[in-house]
Amino acid sequence: MSTGFGIIGCGMIAKFHAKAIADIEGAQLVACYNRTEPKAKDLSAEFGGEVYTDLDAMLGRDDLDVVTICSPSGAHAEPCVAAAKAGKHVIVEKPLDVTLERCDAMIQACEAAGVKLATIFPSRFHKSCQLMKEAVDAGRFGQLALGDAYVKWFRTQEYYDSGAWRGTWELDGGGALMNQAIHSVDLLLWLMGPAVDVMAHTNTVAHERIEVEDVATATVRFANGALGVIEATTAGFPGSLKKIELTGSQGTAILEEEDIIKWQFAEETEQDEDLRKEMMGRNETGGGAADPAAIGHHAHAALFRDFLDAIENDRPPLIDGHEGRRSVELILAIYESAKSGSRVKLG
Fold it and tell me: 0.90 cut: is pTM over it?
């Protein structure tokens, strides 16, 4: 049985979605939509699919089962709601959208239509991240004390100048946090559990003609009593691989992109030394640290496979709309704290 995919928004990230679809047996890209025709034609020429500039016409296809949304971040809600009403399942690039109201509208529309909704956070499908999660769930860290995320990336001025939507509150939703570091924010919440409050500072130090931050720091308090730090920048030449650090009373683990560079527990298992050897040297790309196109598509493909399995077995995808909303909520709280100079509670 073939599953027909359509891509909405045919910019740079759409190619990674198309590559992921091509890797999945039984999946086929049948439609490419963009407001302007040239980008849709370019994507179609490389990966197949009929070209559309009329979204309703594309959504009317009987052989279209799933749409993936790759439009600018603040333009996710409208096509998502339209797709849900047309009975199509929806996968949305991160962030889910840029306000909680828009995120909630997307979740409600998909639930009302009885279609599945997933958010693109491919890092959760890396084996190293899943091993970290398993160790947390097994209690190997003891009492978690600190959970930290560091994203010290570099983006040129030309990157922000390359699209009118980049660096705007309306369509980018934020800067280094909402666009780049949101992957690490999602991982941190997945590993540490919900955050209860934040204190933050943001600034724009190295880029011109943008409304949003290119540097941010935040201290976070989690519901389990642990504390944490989030650091994010797009002004960090030459760009470093992102890190997640977990520290507890019985162990410490440090994740650098897909590598586990520290894995130390008070109670060692027979597998720990083998894991330390296996999980080093796995970074095949720059992780997007300096080049947004320097990422792989293998984790996208894993996420898409999970989504198709969720449809077949009528279960929630691993990263559904509610999961996608959590990182947006925390980042918006960080922005609010930076603006007000006060601690902001979540929930």
Answer: yes
